[in-house]
Design goal:
Blueprint: H1 3-10, H2 26-37, E1 49-53, H3 56-64, E2 66-67, H4 71-78, E3 81-82, H5 85-91, E4 95-96, H6 110-116, E5 120-121, H7 123-126, E6 131-137, H8 150-169, E7 173-177, H9 185-193, E8 200-208, H10 223-226
Bound molecules: flavin mononucleotide.
Length: 237
Amino acid sequence: MSDFLKIIQERQSARVPFDPKCPVSKEDLNQILEAARWTPTAHNMQNFEIIVVDDKEVLERIGHIKSRISEEFLRENYEQLSFSREELLKKKTGILGSMFPPDWVDPAKISEAVKNAMPMPLTQSVRGSPMLLFVVYDPRKRAPASHGDTLGFMSLGCAMENMWLMAQSLGIGLQILSSFSASPVESEIKKILCIPEYLRIAYTCRLGYPTGSSKYLRVRRDLEDFVYHNCFGKAML
Ligand SMILES: Cc1cc2nc3c(=O)[nH]c(=O)nc-3n(C[C@H](O)[C@H](O)[C@H](O)COP(=O)(O)O)c2cc1C
C-alpha cells in the first residue's frame, strides 16, 4: 500500500480527550495551515478563512458556552445508527448507536430526552483540546452559477480533508465539531472571536494529542457497492 493511501485509511475522527498540556507546535500548525492554503476550491475562490484559537482564556470562554441537543439532530441521527457491530458491518455505512446516551437513540424517548436535556457546556466537546480551528466563510458569495453554493461547500470540505490528512501525517488528532456552527452557539462563538456578523462558521476542528486510542468500529462500503463501469449499475470486472 502506498504511504499516502495509508494516511488516508488511518485518518480517523479523534473522539477522545486531548492532552491539554501538549500543544500543537507552531511548525506543525503551519504545515496544517499550508495544507489548507493549497486546497482546491471552485473557481479558485479560496472561500474560507481560519481562526486559530490556542489562548487558554479564550478556549475557556468558548468552553463555558452552553448548547442544547436538538430534536431534529436526534431524529436524523437515528437514521444513521446501527445497534450492533454485526448490523454496522452489514450496512457498511453510519455509526454505532452505543456512541450516544440510550435515550438519544430510542425514537420513542427522543422528544422527552430533548425536553429534559440540560444545556451542556462546550467544554465537554472541547475535551482538553489545546487548539481549535474555526473555518469561516461568507454566505453572501457563491461559486459562479452554483445554486445553494454547492460548489462552495465542496470547497470547504476540500479544506477540511487537506488539513485532516496533514494532521494525520503529523500524528495529530483531529475531530470535527459540527455543533459549534449551530445557532445559538455559533453567535456566542462569533462574539468571543470577533467574527464579523456576515460570516458563518462552516466547521470547527479540535486538534491535539489524543490521551488514548479512538477505538471504534469504522466501516466503509466495498468498491463494488458504489463504483460502476461505463454505465450506472454495471460492475467493474
Ligand atoms: C462535514 C462533516 C461533519 C462532521 N461532524 C462531526 C461532528 O460533529 N462530530 C464528530 O465526532 N464527527 C463529525 N464528523 C466525522 C464523521 O462522523 C466521520 O468522518 C465518519 O463517521 C467516519 O469516521 P472516521 O472519520 O473515523 O473515518 C464529521 C465529518 C464531516 C465530513
